[in-house]
Design a protein that fits this description.
By secondary structure, this protein is of the alpha+beta class. The chain is about 40% helix and about 35% strand. It contains three helices and five strands, in the order ααβββαββ. A hairpin with a 2-residue loop joins β1 and β2. α1 crosses α2. The longest helix has 19 residues.
Length: about 120
């Protein structure tokens, strides 16, 4: 499965979580429920995935923690904010850069409709 197919499966799982729960919960609740949904559809994932940074010969092993690393192909960040800001996209782009991955998704579960709170971020390696 390539990263686009993985992304489509993750989007479907996130839509199911949002459709069932709606907006208004804490990010941690959506994270737990999305993890459950991903498990139910059989996608391998890791939560709070550690992303290392190399700085002048120093390996900072836990410089970042991504909400989800899915199938070793895709980083997913969850938010519960009024609006996705440029800083949120920059955060995901940084995760992509240091992980060497190409594709990431941001889901803002505070959006009335999740499709309005979905953002795709591509690292042009």
């Amino acid at each position: 499965m390539d990263e686009n197919a993985t992304a489509q499966s993750v989007i479907g799982a996130a839509l199911e979580v949002h459709r069932t729960l709606g907006p208004g919960l804490l990010e941690s609740a959506y994270q737990a429920c999305l993890a459950r949904e991903l498990g139910l559809i059989g996608l391998p994932f890791q939560t709070e995935a550690v992303i290392a940074v190399e700085y002048k010969g120093l390996n900072v092993k836990s410089a970042y923690r991504a909400d989800f690393l899915i199938n070793h192909q895709l980083i997913v960040e969850l938010k519960t904010v009024d609006n996705i800001l440029p800083v949120h996209r920059a955060q995901l782009l940084t995760y992509l850069k240091w992980s060497g991955l190409k594709l990431g998704l941001i889901f803002n579960f505070s959006a009335k409709l999740l499709k309005q709170g979905m953002h795709r971020v591509v690292n042009n390696l």
